[in-house]
Write a structure and sequence with these properties.
GO terms for molecular function: ATP binding; tryptophan-tRNA ligase activity. This is Tryptophan--tRNA ligase. Belongs to the class-I aminoacyl-tRNA synthetase family. It catalyses: tRNA(Trp) + L-tryptophan + ATP = L-tryptophyl-tRNA(Trp) + AMP + diphosphate + H(+). The chain contains 16 helices and five strands. By secondary structure, it is mainly alpha-helical. The chain has two domains: about 1-200 and about 310-340, Rossmann fold (3-Layer(aba) Sandwich), CATH 3.40.50; about 220-305, Tyrosyl-Transfer RNA Synthetase (Orthogonal Bundle). Bound molecules: adenosine-5'-triphosphate and magnesium ion (MG). Adenosine-5'-triphosphate binds near residues 199, 200 and 209.
């Protein structure tokens, strides 16, 4: 009875297809967890879902350090399994193992100007923070095009992402419209983002987004000790010197994290009230947050340890998922080549 219901709900939602992914630039962190992974673990029961380990995209700013990418591919897969993404329900695949994705990127690159790529706000921010100077790798500037290839190759309509990805989705839809107008047919489909309630988790110092490349993360694999250290170092209200002083909740990272992770929001609201009135110390709020994070991460870390110790299993999951994805994406590639009149044989 239960499985019947389950199957029905998946087929009812057949029109929606999910594609999302992560760069293989490091282990996944709490930002991924609240920004996208939790949603994916839920959505896999309802929708057809593909998740891509983006190794090619990881290389776009690591061309001189490819080991960083190759050594993190299986880490990312282990993270997926640890949060409950089930390879029997979700297709997990590897970007570099699906040649159609690189080919589509080349075709689409003829439809996007360099100026348009330079205007992409996320690319702009990342270029500034990575201090490329005048040596921006071509691949890096083009990565929104490769993301459009990933999304369209699976005819995905729903993309669970953090808010830094909104400009990529906008650019993808521009490419979709251009290509369809060239083809004079709806060969590609437009997509829309699905943001979680925490579309951008800040780093523990509050200075920027928690991000693999910045090394400012609480990882899904972080030890109890590391979690404790990270919480203790969190940015709060610098003017809240004595416990009795009224404190500020806005911009106080401990409260940002309590909002993001605590299961009882009424309780968090009571804490905020007390903090604002004065009488609640940072030591106490940090202790509450630490307990909450330890509780969330303990089972994830334990599951992850089991998965990462069986590399052969992780490779098999990726290989199977990539093989499955090849058929789907080759069909889209064929349609796109057709649209450009490249179909002699
Ligand atoms: P890198 O620094 O290599 O770019 P990253 O930490 O930004 O790594 P990505 O692989 O670029 O991670 O992002 C994968 C997905 O996770 C995207 O959908 C992104 O929006 C989401 N995401 C990443 N960081 C956060 C965050 N701090 N809060 C919410 N969502 C996030
Ligand atoms: Mg990123």
């Amino acid at each position: 009875m239960h499985s019947q219901l389950h199957q029905n709900s998946k087929s009812d939602a057949q029109a929606e297809k999910i594609l999302t992914g992560d760069r293989a630039t490091g282990q996944l962190h709490l930002g991924h967890y609240v920004g996208s992974l939790q949603q994916r673990a839920k959505l896999q029961h309802q929708y057809e879902q593909t998740i891509l380990v983006a190794d090619l995209q990881g290389l776009t700013d690591n061309g001189n350090n490819p080991h960083k990418v190759s050594s993190n591919i299986l880490n990312v897969v282990a993270d997926y399994l640890a949060v409950g993404i089930d390879p029997l329900k979700t297709t997990i695949c590897l970007q570099s193992a699906i040649p159609a994705l690189a080919e589509l990127t080349m075709y689409y690159s003829n439809l996007v100007s360099v100026a348009r790529l330079q205007r992409n706000p996320t690319v702009k921010n990342e270029i500034a923070s990575k201090s490329f100077g005048s040596s921006i790798p071509t691949g890096f500037l083009m990565y929104p095009i490769s993301q459009a290839a990933d999304i369209t190759a699976f005819k995905a309509t729903l993309i669970p992402v953090g808010d830094d990805q909104l400009p990529m989705i906008e650019q993808t839809n521009e490419i979709v419209r251009k290509l369809n107008s060239i083809a004079q047919d709806e060969i590609l489909v437009e997509c829309r983002p699905l943001l979680s309630k925490v579309p951008r988790l800040p780093s523990t110092d509050g200075k920027s987004k928690m991000s693999k490349s910045m090394g400012n993360c609480i990882l899904l694999s972080s030890s109890e000790k590391d979690i404790s250290k990270a919480v203790k170092s969190m940015y709060t209200d610098p003017n809240h010197l004595r416990i009795e002083d009224p404190g500020q909740v806005e911009g106080n990272i401990v409260f940002t994290y309590l909002d993001a992770f605590h299961s009882d929001l009424n309780y968090v609201n009571d804490l905020k009230q007390k903090y604002k009135e004065g009488g609640l110390g940072d030591g106490t709020t940090k202790k509450i947050l630490e307990e909450c994070l330890q509780e969330i991460l303990r089972p994830v870390r334990e599951r992850r340890e089991t998965f990462i110790s069986d590399k052969a299993q992780l490779i098999e999951i990726l290989q199977k998922g990539s093989e499955k994805s090849q058929d789907e994406s080759s069909q889209v590639l064929k349609d796109v080549k057709n649209a450009f009149g490249l179909n002699l044989f």
